[in-house]
Amino acid sequence: MAPETPAQGPTPRYFTWDEVAQRSGREKERWLVIDRKVYNISEFVRRHPGGSRVISHYAGQDATDPFVAFHINKGLVRKYMNSLLIGELSPEQPSFEPTKNKELIHEFRELRATVERMGLMKANPVFFLLYLLHILLLDVAAWLTLWLFGTSLVPFLLCSVLLSIVQAQAGWLQHDFGHLSVFGTSKWNHLLHHFVIGHLKGAPASWWNHLHFQHHAKPNCFRKDPDINMHPFFFALGKVLSVELGKQKKKYMPYNHQHKYFFLIGPPALLPVYFQWYIFYFVIHRKKWVDLAWMITFYVRIFLTYVPLLGLKGFLGLVFMVRFLESNWFVWVTQMNHIPMHIDHDRNMDWVSTQLQATCNVHKSAFNDWFSGHLNFQIEHHLFPTMPRHNYHKVAPLVQSLCAKHGIKYQSKPLFSAFADIVHSLKESGQLWLDAYLHQ
């Protein structure tokens, strides 16, 4: 009697990189690749917890490294991905597109495995508890300043400064929870994220997620990173895009003077003039009622806390002053790592190259770490977005070695040099635009 032939599963479907690249969303169909598996995300993008745009930015591309970087429970996520699986890359196809550095990808993945074995992806809960306590103590100190010393000019200004510190530092802390870098489960990170950004700052978590994850997925990539959406309507950014804009004879602003008007419409205006109203439009337009409820608790709390001491006009003046000071702090810190760097269209480069060309560091010091919420380690944060911030300095030497081996520029500079580079880069790109506008 002949032996039975073992049951065979369905023959897997094989695809080439050309077939994947054609499904980049331009014709509505979207595919991406993770660990050589091909997934059809055309319908899933609307249900993606991280937002439709962040996953769509990798349509037609390999998304293995960003998938690993953004998810802390990859096993659970992979279960949900099974229904999206449509096949895999053909055996003769390389694991990555030709635009990507194969050796660099392999060595970075080995580095990540080393980092995980070292325990650098695990948070120290005491660090974040003390950080939250220092914010709460400063919040109380701001109110006590007015209660004890009255509402004359000096106590009012001191209270404004203390509340600005609270808002800035709470901004850095919500960033930690938003990146899932504090707790081992998404649930607790999301809950504390709502508390810090919603109740302590009066902003919606969903708005932050919508913008910030796109920034991390494709930093400084035009039309994919919302942090550079001020190009071209307010600023001409980067050498490539500025020349492109000049050649097209487009002039929405006098860009050759942008390094001057940056001081008027940049740091002082972003939060009090734009963000302050846009966040309410965002939650109402998208029906994010949970976020709106958290935001209302913030405004009710500060209204009941400060109106009895300052009256309505004094209270409104305090809110404006705090947002004004916070805005200056926020813009200088967040732009010092990115605006002076390479800004371009998405060239579909490997994860390390994508992040390193768009980010730079500011030298480590106790003040710089505190002042920037450890975002002076922007390179390490972008490579490992779920890493707790207190471990950035530990992984930095390993990242520097990887960059040196592959000839990738690893930039770190003093704080005020980083600030000055924002202005210098705006002046340079403005001049490049003008030259192209007049002569090309």
Automatic annotation (TrEMBL):
SUPFAM superfamilies cross-referenced by the UniProt entry: Cytochrome b5-like heme/steroid binding domain (SSF55856)
Reaction catalysis annotation: (8Z,11Z,14Z,17Z)-eicosatetraenoyl-CoA + 2 Fe(II)-[cytochrome b5] + O2 + 2 H(+) = (5Z,8Z,11Z,14Z,17Z)-eicosapentaenoyl-CoA + 2 Fe(III)-[cytochrome b5] + 2 H2O; (8Z,11Z,14Z)-eicosatrienoyl-CoA + 2 Fe(II)-[cytochrome b5] + O2 + 2 H(+) = (5Z,8Z,11Z,14Z)-eicosatetraenoyl-CoA + 2 Fe(III)-[cytochrome b5] + 2 H2O; (11E)-octadecenoyl-CoA + 2 Fe(II)-[cytochrome b5] + O2 + 2 H(+) = (5Z,11E)-octadecadienoyl-CoA + 2 Fe(III)-[cytochrome b5] + 2 H2O
Subcellular location: Endoplasmic reticulum membrane; Mitochondrion
GO MF annotation list: acyl-CoA (8-3)-desaturase activity; heme binding; metal ion binding; omega-6 fatty acid desaturase activity
UniProt keyword Lipid biosynthesis, yes or no: yes
GO biological process: alpha-linolenic acid metabolic process; fatty acid derivative biosynthetic process; linoleic acid metabolic process; long-chain fatty acid biosynthetic process; unsaturated fatty acid biosynthetic process
EC code(s) of this entry: 1.14.19.44
Pfam families documented for this protein: Cyt-b5, FA_desaturase
Spans through the membrane: 126-147, 153-173, 261-284, 296-322
InterPro entries: Cyt_B5-like_heme/steroid-bd, Cyt_B5-like_heme/steroid_sf, Cyt_B5_heme-BS, FA_desaturase_dom, Fatty_acid_desaturase
Keywords tagged on the record: Acetylation, Electron transport, Endoplasmic reticulum, Fatty acid biosynthesis, Fatty acid metabolism, Heme, Iron, Lipid biosynthesis, Lipid metabolism, Membrane, Metal-binding, Mitochondrion, Oxidoreductase, Transmembrane, Transmembrane helix, Transport
Keyword presence, Transport: yes
Enzyme's top EC category: oxidoreductase
GO CC terms, sorted: endoplasmic reticulum membrane; mitochondrion
Family to which the UniProt record says this protein belongs: Belongs to the fatty acid desaturase type 1 family.
Name assigned to this protein: Acyl-CoA (8-3)-desaturase
